[in-house]
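Researcher: Quick one. two chains, 224 residues in total.
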Amino acid sequence: MEQPDNALEKARRAGIDLDLLDSNLALTYEQRVLRHESALELVLALREAGAVYETPTPAAPEIR
Amino acid sequence: MKPLHLLLQRFADAGLEFVVVGGFAGVLHGSSYVTDDLDICAVLSGENIEKLRTALADLHPVHRITHKKLSFLEHPPAGQQVANLYLETDAGVVDVLSSILGLGGFEALRRNAMEISLFGRRCRVISLEDLIKAKEAMGREKDILTAKELRAIAAKRKQS
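Model:
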């Protein structure tokens, strides 16, 4: 396994939020799962909203 | 939508021997990446397929990759060997894999797995070191990035 400082520096350069990792590591396993499930709910809701937004609205019937 | 961890409870209650792998295992190790499926590694014997069916019976499990989304409760028929199962259920997507690239099958994973208590059930989770190996063996960009995050988690553990 590589040196800890090296791994942290590589992660930082890759844009990984190390403070967020600290926050996750302070949680219990169950708390990590619950936090993840909240985040997943949000992702799924945003995905659904995006799909509705991208669905073309049917053209209004022509009035004569 | 029911929570993904419900699937773990169901598998444990059905007496299935399995190891949690993939992104959900990453979450348990402290990863911040969101995954919308659950991956487990298990021996896909006829007996274990029956246990999976028992666990998922009321969750409408279907093979999500098949054209007609065949019901897992009827397919594969008894005696037919399968390497992996890619299922969609009312509690989310679950992949049951008989082996993991770069690591091997259930027995190889179990040797190093950590055993944790999760929502009242005992549960095996792939070790952090094995998960890093698996992600690096996959080699896709997203896996390489995840492996970097997991290496950072390993480093933080060493420091603490």
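The interface with chain A takes residues 1, 3-5, 24, 27-28, 30-32, 34-36, 116-119, 129, 145, 148-149, 151-160 of chain B (CB under 8 Å).
Researcher: Thanks, that's what I needed.
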